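Handoff note, outgoing to incoming analyst
You'll be picking up this chain. Sequence as last confirmed:
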Amino acid sequence: MRDVGFGPFSFRPDLVSGIPLYLKDFSFPGGRAINREAFTMPLTTRQGTLGRNVLRGFPLRQLDLALRRRLAVTERINLQFRMDIFNLLNRPNFGDPVGDLGNSSFGKSTAMFGRSLGSNVGSVGLNSAYQSGGPRRVQMSLKLQF
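Most recent structure output, in case you need it:
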């Protein structure tokens, strides 16, 4: 970040040719991280050679399932049982990697996806139980219809 007269501003870094953008290792969250050595900060006040939206975070994969059964109690009264399962396979979904080159965690994901939502707005994130990418959740309901 540099102060260009109206406050701190983040410039895009320069891309170092011949260095891979991603490191793959099972010790990283999600098995991969962005390679810090692939970037250098420009010495002058300008945008670097790294293109916009070139780097990608982790994919979000989640399988949800809903089961419903209606039981007739009388001719006019029904009882409905419903079970919703979110992230049925309990697959871990990682949040975006840290993008600040000056941070020691640069290129690594530091949170699960459901917990990382809203973290850029003063840490006023939404409850991870109601977001995609959280752990497996099971919800059951019973409804009386008349």
